[in-house]
């Protein structure tokens, strides 16, 4: 069972009768947010804490005549996928909105910075009228290489949706992400929040013109009841009547009904007595399926590593040289066995959309450790 599924089950289940181990939720929260710095694409800021990373993909978007620098690599590869990035942004913003009051002030700033790193990019995806850019990088070519983001020499193909090739689901998720982020960031920068809200309107208009799946975030952010009416009048299109029992970047209806419960499994209360968050606890994954983490950093090995040059590191039994602190891996199988094998990507690959929902849960337990 993947940790994303475990997380949902934990959220839906009642609290256990007893806690088997005490956890430092503040430490786990700090690391869950720090993880996103290791996933950054583009030109890194001076206060970058994951200092084994360097600038990467600085010319993204040039083939389409737009600037698509920035954003996040969503997993252990070097492709930027717009749908999971938008979902990640929505969940991070939701964490700040609902649980920001429980975060230490420094971590609230870090969480807001993680949201803004994504939204700066998502705004760029709306640069051209009646078009939304949804992906940078050819996944087939990228997945045939094992190289650092800083060395990428694979084709950075740009993909977008348009009236001729619609994608209302990803446009709708982009609208949700920008709207949620507008709410989360308004106390920090009202002018930027207004820019995000304008972008969310543009994304929503595209999604509405080429209909598909939508969200309620725009109404919450704008306090415009027109959107509430839209939701009520399009309930079946939205999936409000669906019986959904899964939660993911392409379907989060179940998230509307979850209640927070303990996270006794991910942080180490499991048969293996192993934390599935890198850097948390005494025992955690050391060989995650992640290019930047598994290859020597550009600081320690400044020489260029081409597409296949990383194969020797991929096949090595040694631990990854760079700890991607806070990364939560896919997790063990139904038998609770985790082999810590970077080749087994289903179990050992971390993703932004696994981490993002957990940020709010951890913030809640920082303030309520005994629930």
UniProtKB/TrEMBL annotation:
Entry superkingdom: Eukaryota
EC code: 3.2.1.4
Domain called Glycoside hydrolase family: residue spans: 25-262
Signal peptide (from-to): 1-21
Keyword terms: Carbohydrate metabolism, Cellulose degradation, Glycosidase, Hydrolase, Polysaccharide degradation, Signal
Broad enzyme group: hydrolase
A Pfam cross-reference name: Glyco_hydro_9
Gene3D superfamilies assigned to the protein according to its UniProt record, in alphabetical order: 1.50.10.10
Reactions that this protein is recorded to catalyse: Endohydrolysis of (1->4)-beta-D-glucosidic linkages in cellulose, lichenin and cereal beta-D-glucans
Active-site residues per Swiss-Prot or TrEMBL entry: 289, 340, 349
Family classification: Belongs to the glycosyl hydrolase 9 (cellulase E) family.
Descriptive protein name: Endoglucanase
